[in-house]
Amino acid sequence: CKKIFYTGSYYLNTLAWGDLDISVILNSNFFSMNDFMCITKEIGLIEGIQKINYRNYLKEDPRPIPIGLYNGIYLDIGSKIWKIDLWAVDETKIENDKKEMKRILDKIDSKKRELILEVKNKILTKSGRTPPFSGFHIYKCVVDRNMKNSSEIIEYMREKLFI
């Protein structure tokens, strides 16, 4: 479907924990706030759903958070809990994300993918997940800064307060 876009570590094949990032286009012609609320209700009825954190970020926020609607969904699949981030954002945001994901994917070879996963696994929290938004900074270190050592990347991220 052209209106749904998978992003983040799932798209880049760099999953270190159960985390799925999905964006849908939010506009009055295709997908409205009412549609998002209907989907939220339907998701809540799925067996295994533990929790849904709904957030309305339609007003600009000083934090680096997309303008749109958000559901943080926690799904128990038996052996572990998966976190699904569902965003409803404008088409421009999705198109920009698609370009950035493609740019990163095109630059990740097997060696870089191994390094990314090594860093992610080293910074997993006690709850078994990576710190919020840390993946973005790991990709920047490996792809844009051409860093090749996991300790160096982690030290850099700590200095910059990314983790």
Describe this structure in words.
By secondary structure, this protein is an alpha+beta fold. 42% of the residues lie in helices and 23% in strands. The chain is built from six helices and five strands, in the order E-H-E-H-E-E-E-H-H-H-H. Strands 1-2-5-4-3 form a five-stranded mixed sheet, sandwiched between helices. It is globular, with a radius of gyration of 17 Å. The N and C termini lie far apart (35 Å). The model has no long low-confidence stretch (mean pLDDT 91).
In short:
Helices cover 42% and strands 23% of the residues. The chain is built from 6 helices and 5 strands; from the N terminus they run βαβαβββαααα.
Annotation keywords:
single chain, five-stranded mixed sheet, alpha+beta, 163 residues
How is the biggest beta sheet arranged?
Answer: 5 strands, mixed
Helical content, roughly? 40-55%
* Poorly predicted tracts of residues: none
Strands side by side in the biggest sheet = 1-2-5-4-3
Assembly state (oligomeric):
single chain
Shape: globular
**Structural class, judged by helices and strands?**
alpha+beta
- What is the first-to-last residue Cα distance? 35 Å
